[in-house]
Amino acid sequence: MFVLEPILTDGIAQLSYLVADTATGQAAVIDPRTDVEIYEQLARKHGVAITHIFETHIHADFVSGSRSLAARVGTAEIYLSGVQATYEFDGRGVEDGQEFDFGAFKLTARHTPGHTPEHLSFLLCEASQPDDPWAVFTGDSLFVGSAGRPDLLGEGQTEELAKALYETLYDFYLKLEDYVTVYPGHGAGSACGADIGDRMNSTIGYERRTNKFLSFPNYDAFKQFVVEEAPPVPWHYPRLKKVNAAGPDVMDRLPTIPALPPKEFRKVSRESGVTVIDTRSILAFGGGHVAGAINVADRPEMSAWVGQMFDLDERLLLVIDDGRDVEQVQRWIVRSGHNRFAGYLAGGMKAWETAGLPLEHLRQLSVHELREQQGNGSGLTVLDVRSPEEWESGHVPGAEHCFVGDMRSRITGMEKDRCFATYCASGYRASIAASLMKSRGFENVSSVPGSWSAWTAAGYPSES
């Protein structure tokens, strides 16, 4: 029996796949994530052995799990692009047109550069119809309603990659039959492409009719669109590309995180190279937190924001509401490449309070208070920390724009004696931004719970 299992990694919107034939007992995994237990569990569920691990390209937004998965299952070979590849670890090279027979189905590798020079996609055929693919695993070259961005390797290679992407889309994908199912490497929310659609798969025919990246009559028009439409490059993407090219460390289990009593936690928090991440909600963080802590709440998207905001060599101290959630929070964090943990606060903030240790507070303004302060000449500077696209679609009148992903560098040029209030779409990123500012010595800073959603729900005006 043929098996195809998509695995969605929340927070980074990454899609990996297990494909198998239960008759031959062989399975392949395409683009495994860092925490690889899920693939072993699926293989056991279907009674197959993972024999092949395929990488479509050198990933930028998460740490690849290929080496960890190969070490864990002990039966699989890693297959890497053999075309324009820059991998620094062992794996079998795959050439354009190379075929892999699994019994009931066949995978055929095709070189599809543009997002990266070495990028591969894999056509899926039934054994009885070896020249008639019914699906394609597109990696980061073609998405639902979008396409891979060609600018992650820097300005010097953007034009060359944009040209390659155009040829990949128009000379390869658009020549496939309309019924071919598209299985992409990312869903909505990933910064690897602009405005990726919500659905986890599509068809070539549907993309032909609706995908704006496939609608340009010539390359010049395409290039202008694809470069201008790309979202900001997340700060950690170039670092993760280096990690994945060199070969990520093999992780046979999640790193140990020691539980630290409050006084020991406070001592470690003062050590050089240690960063405190408070994973509680925006309201809980505002009510009281450890001095210098950055608020990145424990939701799947924390994977992207921990990667965006902190260096890989920083040792992370965690504040978590419930100690039973430590493993899940850690799982989200390691996907961004962070695996150095200094500990977590045993007993959470309740233990900290009981120990009589000092609390810091982050003021929070409702949208009604924000509106009132804007109108009374208080001198409040309102910072919109959303993406440029969100800002341009409408923002609080009189606000200034400072994307939270850029604040690490831009914050040094801000005047610390000004009074600031940060907002985003819901308050999540606003609290990241405000807590970062507070940790850098900004005393008069507030965050806005509910943020833009609450502002518009209250019927307040906007400008664009």
UniProtKB/TrEMBL annotation:
Domain of life: Bacteria
Signal peptide: none
Keywords: Hydrolase, Metal-binding
GO biological process: glutathione metabolic process; hydrogen sulfide metabolic process
Alphabetical list of Pfam families matching this protein: Lactamase_B, Rhodanese
Its EC number(s): 3.-.-.-
GO molecular function, one term: metal ion binding
Entry annotated with the keyword Metal-binding: yes
UniProt domain Rhodanese: residue ranges: 270-361, 376-464
Protein name: Putative polyketide biosynthesis zinc-dependent hydrolase BaeB
Species annotation: Roseimaritima ulvae
Lineage start: Bacteria, Pseudomonadati, Planctomycetota, Planctomycetia, Pirellulales
Gene this protein is translated from: baeB
